[in-house]
Amino acid sequence: MKKRIAILGSTGSIGTQALEVIKQHPDKFELEVITAQINSSLLIKQAIEFKPNAVVIGSKKHYKEVSRALSNFNIKVFAGEESISQIVEMDTIDIVLISLLGFSGLNPTINAIKAKKQIALANKETLVVAGELLVKMAKINHVNILPVDSEHSAIFQCLTGEDFNPIEKIYLTASGGPFRGRDRNFLSKVKKEQALKHPNWNMGNKITIDSATLMNKGLEVIEAKWLFGLNPEQIEVIIHPQSIIHSIVQFQDGSMKAQMGLPDMKLPIQYAFSYPLRLKSDFPRFDFINYPKLTFEFPDTKIFRNLALAFEALKKGGNMPCVLNAANEVVVEAFLKDKVPENGRGIGFLQMSDIIEKCMQTIQFIENPGYEDYVLTDIETRKKTLNYISEI
Ligand code: MG
Predict the structure, then answer these.
(1) Which one, 24, 83, 133, 338, has least CB within 10 Å?
(2) Could you tell me the domains of the chain?
C-alpha cells in the first residue's frame, strides 16, 4: 500500500526535496496535497507534474490564477490560511509533512494531530513554541511525530530498538555556520550576503541566518527536549564543522551511538516517510578518504549568545521559548532586509541577540500556558520586537 502524503509548504527548500523523494519512489509514496503561501507559479508547476488530489494557496489573491491554471486537471483548489489548516483532515492522507515557516506551522500541526495523521515535522518552531501541548496531544491521539530535522532524525534513528534503555545524554552536532571562530568585532559588521553562505547545507533563508547566529541550534535544543523527553542538562551542543556526524546518543552504560552520512536533507525526509523501513536510495555515499579528519569543539556562547538564550528559555519554560521564537522570527526578517520601516536602516547581526534578550526580560511570563496564551505571547512579542528595532 502506498503512503499518501500531504506537504504543507511544498515550494520551500524542504518541500521541493520531499517531492524529489516522492518522485524517486512512485511505488511507495503518492502525493495527495500540496500547499504554498505565495509562490503560485511553482505550486502550479508542481501540481501539473504530480497531480495531487488538492492544492492550497495561502494567499487568497492568487486563488484565481491557480484555479484557472489547473482547471483542465482533476485537482481541487483552495485558498487561505484556514484552508491550509483544514486540508490536513482529509481522509485520504496518511502522513503530513509540516514544512511551513515559523509560528505559522502551529495550527496546521495541531489539526493534523487531532485528525490522527502521522506527522513528519520539519518545522522546529512549532515544537519550540508549544512543545508540551503538541507532545501531550500526540500521545492522546496515538500519533507519531517523526523528526525531519537532520540532528533529530539522527537521534531518532539511534534510538530505534532502544525502547527500554534510558538516554543518559545527547550530543546535538552543529556545523558552527559561516562565522565559526570569528569575534564580536567581526560579527558587528557582517552583512546578510555573508550570513547566507552556509558552508555545508543549502537551506531556506530563515534557517540559514539562524545557523549563522546559532539560534538554529538553540531551537533544536528545545525541539530535542520535547521530542525525546529530556532535561536541559541531558542536552549538549558540540561543533562539528564537517557535518558528517548528525548527532549522538549516549546511553547509561556509556556507549554512544551516532548517525553519519553526507549532509543531505533528502535522507531524513525519506526516513520520516518510510519509517520504520529504510528504502534503497542513490544519495551520494560518505567516503572516508574525503574526510580524513572529523573535528569537534565547544560552541562559544559568549560570542554566539543566541544559544545561551535558548538554553535559558528552555530552563525557564512556560511561554519563554515562545517569546524567544517570536522575537527571533522578527529580528531575522529585519536582518534580511537592508532597510526596515521601523528605523529606516537595517539591523546588525549582533543586535539580533540583544533584542531577543530584551524581549525575554520584558514580556509577561506565563508558567503554564495554553494555546491562547501562545497566540497572545506571539503577537505581543512581535509588537515589542518591532518597537525595539525602531529604537536602534
Ligand atoms: Mg538541523
Answers:
(1) 338
(2) 3-147 (3.40.50.720), 152-264+285-290 (no CATH), 317-390 (1.10.1740.10)
